[in-house]
Amino acid sequence: MSTTLSQLSTQNEFTGRHIGPSDQDQKTMLQALGFSNTDELISKVVPKTILTKDKMDIGNGISEYDILAELKSIMGKNKIYTSLIGMGFHDTITPSVIARNVFENPVWYTAYTPYQPEISQGRLQSLLNFQTMISDLTGMEIANASLLDEGTAVAEAVAMAFSLSKKQGVKTFVVHPDAHPHVIEVLKTRSEPQGLEMILQDPATYDYSKEIFAAVFQYPTSSGRVEDYRSTSQKLHDHGAFVIASADLLSLTLLTPPGEWGADIVVGNSQRFGVPLGYGGPHAAFLATKDSFKRSLPGRLVGVSVDNHGHQALRLTLQTREQHIRRDKATSNICTAQVLLANMAAMYAVYHGPQGLKNIAQRVHRLTQLAAEGLKKIGLTAETTQFFDTLKVKVASDKLSAIKAASEKHEVNLRYFTDAVGFSFNETNTVKTVEAVLTILNGGQALGFKVEDLEKTLTTNIPSELTRQSAYLTHPNFNSYHSETELMRYIYSLQNKDITLTHSMIPLGSCTMKLNAATELAPISWPEVNKLHPFVPIEQAQGYRHLIQDLERKLCAITGFAAVSLQPNSGAQGEYAGLLVIREYFKKTNQSHRNICLIPSSAHGTNPASAVMVGFKVVVVNCDENGNVDVADLKAKAEQHKDSLAALMVTYPSTHGVFEEAIIDICETIHKNGGQVYMDGANLNAMVGLARPGVFGPDVSHMNLHKTFAIPHGGGGPGVGPIGVAKHLAPYLPTHSLIKDAGPETGVSSTTSAPWGSASILPISWSYITMMGDSGLRAATTTSILNANYIAKRLEPHYPIVYKGKEGLVAHECIIDIRPLKKSHDIDVTDIAKRLIDYGFHAPTMSWPVAGTLMIEPTESESKAELDRFCDAMIEIRKEADTTPDVIRQSPHTAESLMATEWTQSYSREKAAYPLKWVKSNKYWPPVGRVDNAFGDRNIICSCPPLDEYQ
Predict the structure, then answer these.
(1) For the chain, what are the domain ranges?
(2) Of 139, 213, 155, 218, nearest to 468 (Cα)?
């Protein structure tokens, strides 16, 4: 036999599916660059001082079939009970039409953040639906396009109120003690480094002997009370304080919205609108406020503008207002959002409509009423008579053990207090659920009555003065698509407007838009993965425990760090958590005076924003003419601030797409002067298998799982930004007061609502790493570097390459200079970005990190044919600049504009629509022309336009 069984088995390796260029294509590309193999190339790109060929101890990689079987076995260890724990997390029903056509649809999950509005109109419309839904339900004037989770949303609201406050020097705020515990913990984490003082007290009883700038209410409270906050809100306003409400979204279909009882800012979580529990995330939080506060709003905001034909067009509005543009003046480091989940929640509201949502809420409320009546029958009483979906019942401490045993028998999770039991109902529950709860509270004894019979005497337990009277979701979008056929067509009508990875490569520098393999994503729909409440007993989450520990081990092996925390649910959260760990280390070693953070001038704006959030002072370090850190300036400033130096934040490889040769010297300089090195891991895709940051100098780094490790971008989120740390920092990794296994006892308090952040998408990265194995991960890295250098080589005769390493090569991305073209032809980066749409491509990153340039990152997943297609488009555009520059300036070209009866342009319609032959075979038609950003900023509309727009 010529071929053995073991040789045949390698034919199903995942690596060959993930990496785009074939072996022959790679040889051709290497030859074009003057190399015979990738080892030669890498030896010229990666500094020898950090390059390693050691194996990472990941294993050999396994097939897609085998990974699903293995993961099924692991996650099968989870126990799926009926969880009534509440605290803002509720089981929900994801309509199949949304699960299949949004949640599991690569058109929705592979899209990038909609910074290019002309190719993002579909998801922008869905996000506008989300904003409208939030504004309507909360009774506020404006809402953002989602935040990370409820705890951080409340923290963002407090920071926003503090920035708006006119009370000079007042740093105290009050929080209702019956807020969710995870919300209180995140507030504690966020407040202390910024010198804010949190007082846990019912704002209604506060005597104002000490000035406050804000008060936070939970509505309804964590234990279920529905309270009237009108008079308290008025009193707070009279004292110049802001009113913040953290509200349950479903309850607002029945309760008076906070905007009608005095709230200035309303936050919460849209999770129960069809987004699975997922052991804590990802879930789309929200923040709504008054229109007058819009310029202080954290996160993203979708607005309505017009295109160059005068037609309505959507865009991200006030883009220059985004917090990370403000750098060290920012009050938030928010960079990403939870767009995929916000789209799911918005579609849930579109599908059910206002009456459907109200019916769900009424049914949940009715089940809770039945439970309250049943409690009386078994000799117990709920603590409150005014509630929506949650009850708290006092029980004798000697009864708790029997109750816990009965709940285990019935496979129901309740919430336990020291002297009480609580439970929250949701849309998946039935009368049988109520019966089970009452039986458990009855010590496991039979009830002796039928729960259904209790319904005859029920009235509402929501007081009339707090019953919602105002209309909501009146827009046609929420009243037109209630059949599956209509919703399916609506979803497809939106997705057909967007360019995603299903259409062509997305060559965004610093964003790593690689393949998100179907096998990696399939488990996210499994109930073993998405049906767990984040605060179930750890014994019920042994599958997750196994996966989390193994993923942490693998990330340590890849990076060389001693320990990893998976809690941060975005890259910016990773920055924040990493700096908190450094700060805590200094506190515990009696060096709290260290508060200077050095940051290169080229750094992403989230870096200085994160530093300020942990109480550090930012000192900017210069970069040299090649984009590298100016080592002389760094050494001078490190020496100048050696007595108070806390950290250096450095991106590696650099923001400019180059491996800086001086990285070890840079790290040693910081350590010599008493500081710690934080490495921004945004560009880790250029290092996996080649260099380990935990070995060559950095003390802490975040790793973007939504970039390097294959979690999809979801149109602007979800993401995960875990941090790896050196051994001396490991004791200070984030923990969580509600789940002791979440981190070390000596760690900083929680940075997110859930113990492991966005846990349900961790199987994606675990599967990617495990399928690729040691050699596959290294091959992915070398191929990403090869692809970037191949593009640079092809484009260099037409566009100058701005930055290169000492061997004349780039790392995983390259920056091309458009400034000469602007000077000679009056064509800029925006013009080229818009013209690329006519070729069916998303634009590279525009004007960052250098104004007037385009940063291109192809990733390892794109084939040579696709790279050539992109290069051909860019080369043709450069030719057009000489021959028909107007075709670039007038782009993109819509079908409607090309069908005009009169054609007055200086170029042909065919030139506009089909600039190269292959464009005809898969033509993308932009739904709008070039969007007018200035008009949108002058005429801000951030919810669905009024009804007369549709008449």
Answers:
(1) 84-504
(2) 139
3-state SS of the chain: helix, strand, coil percent to 5? 45, 10, 40
Residue 254 and residue 269: Cα distance in Å, rounded?
A: 17
List pLDDT tens digits, range 380-418.
Answer: 999 999 999 999 999 988 889 899 999 999 999 999 998
* DSSP annotation string for 707-739: TTT----TTT------EEE-GGGGGGS---TT-
If phi > 0 it is left, if psi is from -120 to 50 it is alpha, else beta; for residue 479 that is alpha
942, exposed or middle or buried, with CB in 10 Å at 0-12, 13-18, 19+?
A: buried
The rounded distance, in Å, linking the Cα atoms of 397 and 526 is 38
Whether the pTM exceeds 0.70: the reply is: yes
On the CB side of 392, how many CA atoms lie within 13 Å of its CA? 19
The percent of residues above 70 in pLDDT, for the chain, comes to 97
**Local structure of residue 208 (DSSP, 8 states):** -
Distance CA 236, CA 243 (A): 7
Please check whether residue 253 is in contact with residue 361, taking contact to mean a CB–CB distance below 8 angstroms: yes
Whole-angstrom distance, CA of residue 187 vs CA of residue 347: 31
Q: What are the tens digits of pLDDT across the range 736-759?
A: 999 989 999 999 999 999 999 999
175, containing H or E segment: strand 172-175
Longest dimension (CA), the chain: 90
DSSP per residue, 429-482: --HHHHHHHHHHHTTT---SS-GGGGGGG---SS-GGGB--S----SGGGSS--
> Contact at 8 Å (CB) between 259 and 267?
no
Give 715's contacts (C-beta < 8 A, 6+ positions apart).
108, 109, 111, 112, 113, 114, 120, 123, 339, 340, 343
Q: What is the pLDDT of residue 325?
A: 57
- CATH of the structural domain 84-504, one choice from 3.40.640.10, 3.40.50.620, 1.10.3720.10, 3.40.50.970: 3.40.640.10
